[in-house]
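Final report, Chapter 2: Outcomes

The project's central promise was a pipeline that accepts a single protein chain and returns its three-dimensional structure in a standardized token representation, suitable for archiving and comparison. That pipeline is now operational. To close this chapter, we reproduce one record exactly as it appears in the project archive, with the input sequence first and the structure output second.
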Amino acid sequence: MQDSFRKSMLTLPLQPTLAVFAAVAIYIAERPFRIQGAQLCLSDQGTGAGATTVNLKLNGVAINPGGSLSIAVGAGSNAINTPITTNSNYPGGQRVNKGDVLTVDVAAVPATTVPKNGYVVLDLVEIDV
């Protein structure tokens, strides 16, 4: 069966110097869609013990598997991609309705030096109502 859904990406930039803080990025949905994946991308991994960890929330409730996206200092990559599989209805992913609020919370940063820049990229499937 041919996949006829329109796909797009939504980039949510994080503040230039990361710090543990709630709602560092906020997006209010202008149309309905499904989130099928989330990526955390960093300019660098920082230094010291720990990891950069973010939580993706829909209307205040975490939606990514395991509750967070995390990249440890010394990891092999500055990016991580996680599928969002909270809904088994075709085409899958987390449904977002017009007016829903997506937020990104920074839950942890490395102990010595934090990454200089970061962003979260959401893989979207557009849906018609």
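Archive annotation: The two ends are 21 Å apart (CA to CA).
This record, like all others produced under the grant, will remain available to the consortium after the project formally closes.
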